[in-house]
Amino acid sequence: MKNVYIVGFMGTGKSSIGRILAGSLGLEFIEMDDVIEEREGQRIVDIFANKGEEYFREVENKLLKELSHQENLIISRGGGLACNDNNLKILKDTGVVFTLKASARCIYERVKNKQHRPLLNVEDPLEEIERLLDKRERYYSKAHYIIDTEALSIEKIVRLITEKLKNG
Predict the structure, then answer these.
(1) DSSP the chain
(2) Which of 3, 12, 6 is nearest to 106 (CA)?
(3) Cβ distance 31 to 128 under 8 Å?
(4) What pLDDT, in 10s, does the model give residues 81-117?
(5) What is the pTM of this model?
(6) Cα(75)–Cα(45) distance, rounded to whole angstroms?
(7) Distance CA 92, CA 90 (A)
(8) Which domains can be identified in the chain, with CATH numbers?
């Protein structure tokens, strides 16, 4: 089976859905941010603070290329990874891509109390979410499937993804 890539903005449920999906399908789940933190020996927020976003994106791109040579993985990746034409091509060529989406307000409510979101360490996080969603939409919309997570339970989303994988 090709890899299943779960993409989308922070707070859309990528990690939670990916873990449950992998368990239900009997596949390995990879949370790319966790792998990067382990390899770098620091949290993502600290990588951004100490080495910058450009360095983080390079590490993220290298890991994607490594994982894309494997199969039978459920991979959740950071919200910005698919926002690069080369990365998007790798994702689509080596797996099935699901974009999880939600409104800016919903995302803000889900992440507003979390301090480990380096891109939201700004004066107006909601405005930043809106700006980033607008910037990234052209990439997110190129996934094989798009699922709005705002009003659905995790279990329902997992069922939808499983149906798409089985039925195409």
Answers:
(1) --EEEEEESTTSSHHHHHHHHHHHHT-EEEEHHHHHHHHHTS-HHHHHHHH-HHHHHHHHHHHHHHHTT--SEEEE--TTTTSSHHHHHHHHHHEEEEEEE--HHHHHHHHTT-S--GGG-SS-HHHHHHHHHHHHHHHHTTSSEEEE-TTS-HHHHHHHHHHHHHH-
(2) 12
(3) no
(4) 667 888 889 999 999 999 999 999 999 999 888 766 7
(5) 0.91
(6) 20
(7) 6
(8) 3-167 (3.40.50.300)
Tokens 């989406």 belong to residue: 101
Contact between residue 164 and residue 145 where contact means Cβ atoms under 8 Å apart: yes
Residue recorded with tokens 């990234």: 136
pLDDT tens per residue, range 3-15? 999 999 989 999 9
DSSP letters along 128-145, please?
HHHHHHHHHHHHHTTSSE
